[in-house]
């Protein structure tokens, strides 16, 4: 069956016996040929294998690593929410986690609260214990469980939304700080001098970590050689699904080397 074409294309393109013949005088893009062939397929009795239908790309699937949970409004310095009530509720929520309850009942893990030894009169300016503490940041002190027999640590920390890098996602540098802090909390009690310094810390980011969320830190000393401690660990987010199940997602894994040091002299004069 012949295909009727406009007169100006009569010498350019025609079909005969279900075959398409292209004139030597005009070059037609193969992709346009396929579209034209599919558009006028009703004029053909058969469809050849070269007539491949063009399909749109499927929409991108949402990341399985990041799901912004529904939470109550986190207080900041700019709103009128009762901050004391919020911190009490947040602390109770952390203590009610199944993993925390299990560790509280474990005889070999000892619970400690981070920054509990500091007070307003302490002449010390810690980054994590003071600068990062407050509304929208670290609203409550971390809950830490230590097992010095197996040289393990499990810690739980809430990250406020003012500690974001991208909106709604915790800053990567903050997660590195949390990892360094938790590593040191395990290493320091294992050294006779009860003091340590970081030699190196390798951080691998595995998935986005939402801000205004509770994270879990697991740390273990892989090897202890004299004044050296080789440490490994990871950071996980704790998400509640609709069935109140706890789903942990690894967002960071890390390893590092810490060395035992003597007491650091803090009365030295530094250049300004």
From TrEMBL:
Region (Disordered): 44-82
Pfam families recorded: 4HBT (PF03061)
Residue ranges of domain Thioesterase in the record: 168-239
Record field: compositional bias (Low complexity): 44-54
Biased composition regions of type Basic and acidic residues, renumbered to the chain: 71-80
PANTHER family listed in its UniProt record: UPF0644 PROTEIN PB2B4.06
Name this protein carries in UniProt: 10074_t:CDS:1
């Amino acid at each position: 069956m012949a295909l009727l074409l406009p007169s100006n294309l009569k010498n350019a393109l025609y079909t005969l016996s279900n075959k398409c013949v292209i004139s030597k005088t005009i070059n037609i893009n193969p992709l346009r040929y396929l579209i034209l062939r599919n558009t006028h397929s009703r004029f053909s009795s058969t469809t050849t294998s070269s007539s491949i239908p063009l399909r749109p790309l499927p929409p991108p699937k949402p990341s399985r690593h990041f799901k912004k949970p529904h939470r109550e409004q986190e207080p900041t310095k700019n709103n009128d929410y009762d901050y004391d009530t919020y911190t009490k509720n947040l602390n109770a929520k952390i203590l009610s986690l199944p993993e925390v309850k299990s560790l509280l009942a474990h005889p070999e893990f000892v619970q400690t609260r981070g920054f509990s030894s500091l007070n307003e009169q302490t002449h010390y300016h810690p980054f994590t214990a003071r600068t990062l503490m407050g509304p929208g940041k670290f609203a409550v002190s971390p809950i830490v469980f230590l097992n010095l027999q197996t040289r393990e640590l499990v810690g739980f920390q809430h990250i406020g939304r003012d500690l974001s890098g991208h909106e709604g996602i915790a800053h990567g540098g903050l997660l590195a700080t949390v990892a360094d802090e938790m590593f040191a909390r395990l290493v320091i009690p294992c050294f006779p001098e009860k003091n340590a310094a970081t030699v190196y810390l390798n951080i691998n980011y595995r998935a986005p970590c939402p801000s205004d969320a509770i994270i879990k830190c697991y740390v273990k000393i892989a090897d202890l050689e004299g004044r050296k401690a080789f440490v490994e660990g990871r950071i996980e987010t704790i998400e509640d699904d609709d069935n109140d199940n706890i789903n942990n997602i690894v967002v960071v894994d890390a390893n590092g080397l810490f060395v035992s040091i003597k007491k650091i002299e803090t009365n030295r004069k530094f250049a300004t």
